[in-house]
Design brief:
The chain is an alpha+beta fold. The chain contains 2 helices and 2 strands; from the N terminus they run ββαα.
Length: about 130
Amino acid sequence: MTAYLQSQCLEITAAGSNITTIHISITFINILIMYTPTKSPFTLPKINLNGTDAQSLFDEYMDAQDAIRKALHILQKCTCHGRDFQCNPVDDYNQALFERAEILAKLDDCLDYCLAWADNANEAMEQ
């Protein structure tokens, strides 16, 4: 990552004896981020004329991603509270929290999977 700092000073003087000079200082920061793509952990198709077209794949996986994201948000709002485990053995609530975290992580993995397919299709459309 490279950052550049650039300052500009603007001086405005208005005519007349009752007007003073106004100094305006503007600072710009330009940041250049070098991106090196890494290999996807998923097996992705080389999109070709004999297979499903890139736009269809892109649309399908974006729709899937939207549905998974909605499911993730709904599941995150679902109650998993210790008071509901007061009649259970002591470690059950901690186990339930662990299982919940695993399930939410799997949904995150599903989002990554859909994004990888959508990105792959998008790259094919740009060629």
